[in-house]
Amino acid sequence: MADKQTINLDNIKNPEGLRKILEAMYTEVTALRTLANELRTDHATFKTQSDAVETLIEELDDDHATFVTVVGAIKTLVNDIKSKLDAFVANGMLSSAALAIGSTPQNVYTGLCMYTVAGVVYTKAAVAAGTAPGDDVIPQSKYGAVAFDIGVDGTIDAIKASNNATGYDSSALAVAGLPAAAAGHVRMGYVTAMKSDGDFTFGTTSLADGTSTVAYTSSAGVMASLGAAVSSSPPATLTASKPASAPATLTAPAVTQKCQSGR
After folding, report:
1. Residue ranges of the domains in the chain?
2. What is the sign, positive or negative, of the torsion defined by CA atoms of 53, 59, 65, 71?
3. For 169-203, how does the pLDDT look when each residue is reduced to its tens digit (9 = 90+)?
């Protein structure tokens, strides 16, 4: 190892030998200092980079929760639209017929509405005078019900609850007594009625009779109850900066041993 200065008693006693040893030690310490300083600088760079990565990960974690909310809302809305479209291609009211008392007070008014039968869309103009609700006689203090169905020909049919003649103890029971809409027909809604001081005769008793309880229920349009719009917004562009590149290969050279112990 001729390139290394040997540290021994003879060289230390010799001024020239001591000088060479000290110069070798200085060279090696200087190289160590250069390497240590570069490693210290690189550590600061790594610390900055590590902090940037942590910030970015935390932001991505927060954004993930927001995305879950947005995607969940979109999923709910899309599924609701699908169910409405399924109803659209079947039979159903596209808009409410808004049942009410007709200008002929014994009849039931229906407003302008749209409906679909087997995927075909039909429009029915308003019937201001109303449609006659049949002629069933409901016993005093009992409830009766009449439904209004419409088919492809645009005719509104009054459909009676099966036990109107004997009456029902509640309006809910009367509604339950209504048969389902016939094939090729759509239910526009129904009316229930009860008279407290005598029989209620559909088609004869005024729907505005002061001693009668009359309720109108219209079938909702399949699009009327569409789910709420998605109000949550996805996260904006990331605010966290892209992490800087890691330090390149060390520029400080490897430390070469300049001294060695000797005897």
Report:
1. 1-88, 90-218
2. negative
3. 999 999 999 999 999 999 999 999 999 999 999 99
